């Protein structure tokens, strides 16, 4: 990732900016440790410190009042324990690299996000996910973590340990994750196809039929067509190509999630079988944008109320004034299903969810002015925001959405007693 300024942004901080260019890090110092020992010494000696991965988060979550430590230069290692069906990977590695290594050795992950360029530790810290009724978030594949805490100690926490469920989706607030152990399975092939024009009426009447029609399903809509979902992307394990869903038609040529976007940046959509890591993400690993021209928001609603929640967003998007503004700011929305997990700060904690996602034009003041109305429409469903994306819920609203909020506060106070990993973004959310 380059630190060049995106168009229209200048940066004076040595720590540069996030991928979207809407956040300029204010930290006066950035370090690129090359060993875990060096990292631990940097962390121990800093009054304020935060880790940064590939910078794809849309807020100042990785910023620090003193020091940012990048995981880019730490050694990249992948080892597989075939008996345990786990892989130990360096936290700063990107999923694209991890996936290639695993596949070469005959192994695979269950889930990937739309973009394979994000780091493993950065992705699990915010509860990043892909899609699939039987598929949990990327964090739900974690079986153990090595973390450098603010006293410089390196601790391992494993599934089954009392602190584990609080330590995986942890927003970088507990320490710097240096190694992640992930559940793996034998490598597999997949197909991907795209269908267009699924009637909203049938989709909302039976969401289970849509999300259950492939191993990983994404519905894309701009909410502009009142009758039909624009695209349904379906990824299926094996060589099988599912029939188009009733009322939709198979796309004649490859497309992009954004209407009119460059299809060559996207993974194969022809139904040709290929390895899992070249079908699960929407975007190809070889396509590496140095910065973005967009913002994103996403809200997780309970699966059993998802049709109602989607209907509420459709109604908002169709309403005069706020609906016009929503559609003006929106590039595209994506709907995905995520299986429940037990990770305290996960959007899918304790319940199967559907993620209602929005890719916005990069006009942050206008997006932030709109979000309270969107959040009010989704509030009746107990919608939890994605930690890596833009939202405006207040601290007390957030606390009410997470049953283990108080337990996480206790864990954070214990693991980071001197508050080195606190920053303004976390404080604004009540951490
Ligand atoms: C184009 C694009 C597509 C996206 N697609 C998806 C998607 O399909 N699904 C989805 O759920 N999200 C998606 N996201 C959001 C993205 O996955 C999250 O923001 C993710 O956290 C980014 O990971 P990163 O490596 O860039 O982390 P960063 O943005 O660098 O950091 C994120 C957080 O992790 C912490 N962190 C980073 N490294 C470490 C470490 N080693 N130890 C401890 N804490 C650490 C940081 O302090 C910060 O709090 C997308 C974002 C973009 C820009």
From TrEMBL:
The record's keywords, sorted A to Z, are: Oxidoreductase
Q: Where is the FAD-binding PCMH-type domain?
A: 23-187
Query: So which domain of life are we looking at?
Result: Bacteria
Region feature (Disordered):
1-20, 239-264
What GO cellular component entries does it have? membrane
Provide ranges: composition bias, Polar residues: 1-15
- Output one GO MF annotation: FAD binding
**Which InterPro entries does the UniProt entry name for this protein?**
ALO_C (IPR007173), FAD-bd_PCMH (IPR016166), FAD-bd_PCMH-like_sf (IPR036318), FAD-bd_PCMH_sub1 (IPR016167), FAD-bd_PCMH_sub2 (IPR016169), FAD_lactone_oxidase-like (IPR010031), Oxid_FAD_bind_N (IPR006094), Vanillyl_alc_oxidase_C-sub2 (IPR016171)
Record Pfam families: ALO, FAD_binding_4
Query: Which protein are we looking at?
Result: Xylitol oxidase
Which organism was this protein described from? Microcella putealis
The root-end lineage is: Bacteria, Bacillati, Actinomycetota, Actinomycetes, Micrococcales
């Amino acid at each position: 990732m380059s630190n060049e300024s995106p168009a229209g942004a200048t940066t004076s901080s040595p720590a540069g900016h996030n991928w979207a260019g809407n956040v300029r890090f204010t930290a006066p110092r950035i370090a690129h440790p090359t060993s875990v020992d060096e990292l631990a010494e940097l962390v121990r000696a800093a009054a304020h410190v935060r880790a940064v991965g590939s910078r794809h988060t849309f807020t100042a979550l990785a910023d620090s009042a003193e020091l940012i430590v990048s995981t880019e230069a730490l050694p990249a290692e992948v080892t597989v324990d075939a008996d345990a069906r786990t892989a130990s990977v360096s936290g700063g590695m990107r999923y694209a690299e991890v996936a290639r290594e695993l596949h070469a050795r005959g192994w695979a992950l269950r889930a990937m996000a739309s973009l394979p360029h994000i780091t493993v530790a950065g992705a699990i810290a915010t509860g990043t996910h892909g899609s699939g009724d039987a598929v949990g978030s990327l964090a739900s594949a974690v079986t153990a973590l090595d973390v450098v805490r603010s006293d410089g100690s390196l601790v391992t926490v494993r599934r089954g340990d009392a602190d584990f469920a609080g330590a995986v989706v942890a927003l970088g607030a507990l320490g710097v994750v240096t190694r992640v152990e992930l559940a793996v399975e034998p490598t597999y092939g997949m197909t991907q196809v795209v269908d267009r024009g699924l009637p909203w009426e049938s989709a909302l009447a039976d969401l289970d039929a849509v999300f259950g029609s492939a191993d990983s399903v994404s519905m894309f809509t701009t909410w502009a067509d009142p009758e039909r979902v624009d695209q349904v992307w379906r990824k299926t394990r094996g060589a099988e190509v599912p029939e188009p869903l009733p009322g939709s038609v198979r796309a004649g040529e490859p497309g992009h999630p954004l209407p009119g976007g460059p299809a060559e940046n996207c993974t194969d959509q022809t139904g040709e079988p290929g390895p899992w890591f070249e079908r699960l993400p929407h975007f190809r690993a070889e396509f590496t944008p140095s910065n973005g021209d967009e913002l994103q928001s996403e809200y997780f609603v309970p699966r059993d109320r998802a049709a109602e929640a989607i209907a509420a967003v459709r109604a908002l998007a169709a309403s005069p004034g706020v609906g016009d503004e929503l559609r003006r700011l929106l590039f595209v929305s994506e709907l995905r299903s995520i299986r429940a997990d037990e990770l305290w700060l996960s959007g899918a904690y304790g319940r199967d969810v559907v993620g209602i996602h929005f890719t916005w034009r990069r006009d942050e003041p206008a997006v932030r002015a709109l979000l309270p109305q969107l959040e009010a429409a989704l509030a009746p469903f107990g919608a939890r925001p994605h930690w890596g994306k833009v939202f405006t819920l207040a601290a007390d609203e957030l606390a009410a959405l997470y049953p283990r909020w108080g337990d996480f506060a206790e864990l954070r106070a214990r693991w980071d007693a001197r508050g080195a990993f606190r920053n303004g973004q976390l404080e604004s959310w009540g951490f």
